[in-house]
Fold this protein.
Amino acid sequence: MRNKEAIGVFDSGVGGTSIWKEIIRMLPNEDTIYLADIANAPYGEKSPEHIIDLSIKNTQRLISLNCKLIVVACNTATTNAIDFLRNNYDIPFIGIEPAIKPAALASKSKSIGILATKGTLSSSLFHRTSELYASELNVIEVVGKGLVELIEADKIESTEMYKLLEDYLQPMINQNIDYLVLGCSHYPYLIPVLRKILPQDVTIIDSGQAVALQTKNILTKNNLLNTRELLGNHILYSNANIEVLQKLTDTEKEINKEVAFLDF
Ligand code: DGL
């Protein structure tokens, strides 16, 4: 039965685990297979063609592992490759995009900040969404160059990280933002640091819960929900080192989890 198969999730690295955590909390009976393409991280500075090629590689591997649905837990891959993937593979895809719409609707200062990769901010999908929901607002877009590399290197609380974030957030603070949109699935891991730099009244939003809810809705609609009562099994593969992947997912207690190397 197809509904017993796993949900596939991929990202350029460890960041998509911020989305994966929301998914396994909302759907605890589902099995999942996570691919961290650490050997090719970061995606953010790569060309759209290269990002599409890497997304195809990850998709084919998850399909070969019999996944029933694929979550592209990477804004950069979603905004550059999801149309291609949906047009070429007969499996449901869930993507993640910066949450501009809720931020734009809720903003009182009419000024919002978006921190994302160059690949996301320069994509036509991002431009279309921004135009649609935020054309009346002051939107300060900042490329988070170097942030993904530091997260992958387990340097979240480092001096380099503080320095970079202070530089990236200052123009946003100067322009009185009241919402900061995290447009990269790695960035929720920066929230403790961001909170120390941002004024208290700035709300930080990411798309993790919305993606988990959408995953549940699409599984339900396609009759693919796993209806068993046992807890799911989770395997997380990296094609490079596994240490940071292990550490960031160790926060999830009492789940059946394995972290392993896989050449993909
Ligand atoms: N985590 C990814 C994203 O959401 C990609 C970051 C990167 O590899 O540059 O955009």
